[in-house]
Amino acid sequence: MSIRSMTGFARATGTLPDGTPFAWELRSVNGRGLDVRLRLPGGLDVLELPLREAAAGRFARGNVNATLTVKREDRAPKLVLDQAALDRAMALVRELAERMPGAAAPRPEAVLALPGVLRTEVEVPDEAAEGARRAAVSQGFTQALEELFAARAAEGARLAAILATLLDEIEALCRRAVAEAAGQAAAHRARLAGVLAELLEGERRVPEDRLAAEVALLAARSDVREELDRLGAHVDAARALLADPAPIGRKLEFLTQEFGREANTLGAKSGSLALTRISLELKAAIERLREQAANVE
User: Fold this and answer.
1) How many whole angstroms separate alpha carbon 218 and alpha carbon 21?
2) Is the entire prediction scored with pTM above 0.85?
3) Does 168 share its domain with 287?
4) What are phi and psi of 64, to 5 degrees?
5) Pairing of the two strands 62-70 and 118-120
6) Are 36 and 152 in contact (CB under 8 A)?
7) pLDDT tens for residues 29-53?
8) Residues 285 and 233 occupy one common structural domain
9) φ, ψ dihedrals at 139, nearest 5°
10) By C-alpha distance, which of 53, 64, 2 is closest to 30?
């Protein structure tokens, strides 16, 4: 069996070309379709579309949250002197000194604090370096995807064992139901004859052919062979799905709904307490099957 779960976790680490370490963390949970959510540091938003496409190439369903963490050293911004701004500031200082004879000369740090004299150096992006940085991040994401795929496959193997056990349980309950349903006609006859005897108090007998007709009518209304046949067919279909290498989650969820319909009808048409109890056990087993099927990709 090669089914995969929709739940899993993966972590992959790497190093950017400049030596900066980074880490990808991917978490996956159940989802009706595939929903990939990325959290990327500034400057790497351009990778969002190709990373989404890479995830779609590995998974068919599930809510996948991917977070990229880049560890950067805290560096103070590099300041550079704007010579033109300094010259303008010094010219203004000299003009003020001429207008205000005897005034104290301004301190150097006061001149440097004037707007525009010092500015933060802006790094010119290196396209080759940026390309190498994006390639390293993408490679790390691919590694994380493979680890998440393996995690979901391992969880799927455990799910397959649980599902197979539940299908065996359902099949066994169906066999018990078949055996119990085989005696429903005789039980109807005995019950109807007893009720009539009590009502008539032995004064007169009901014609045998009339009694047989009433029993046949009750038996027809409570005939559950068709429901049991369909339940058996659903068990076979579910086992075939478990052996299918393609994503089967949606098909399996639909099939569990069909299981439930047949079990409900079986309970409604039950003609004995024993068969009613079996139908309740069937419903409980099918509900457990449905809950587990909701985890399958």
Assistant:
1) 76
2) no
3) yes
4) -110, 120
5) unpaired
6) no
7) 999 999 999 999 988 889 999 999 9
8) yes
9) -65, -40
10) 64
Handedness of CA 272, 278, 282, 283 (dihedral sign): positive
Q: CATH number of the domain that 260 lies in?
A: 1.20.140
For residue 1, tell me if it sits in a domain.
no
Which pair of structure tokens corresponds to residue 241?
């799905």
Express each pLDDT in 166-217 by its tens digit.
Answer: 999 999 999 999 888 775 655 555 555 455 455 555 555 655 655 555 545 4
Please give the mean pLDDT across all residues of the chain: 84
**3-class DSSP assignment, residue 296:** strand
Per-residue tokens: 123: 């790094």
Query: In terms of domains, do 145 and 208 share one?
Result: no
Check whether residue 171 and residue 143 sit in a common domain: no
| CA dist., res. 151 & res. 12, Å (int) | 13
Query: 54 CB contacts (<8 Å, ≥6 apart)?
Result: 138, 141, 142, 145
- What six digits make up the tokens of 35? 């929903």
Domain hosting 191: range is 155-293
| 3-state secondary structure at position 69 | strand
SS3 275: helix
- Ranges in the chain, pLDDT < 70: 1, 73-77, 121-125, 183-223
Structure-block tokens of residue 255: 């099939």
Same domain, 69 and 88: no
The verdict on 160 and 257 lying in the same domain is: yes
Same domain, 283 and 183: yes
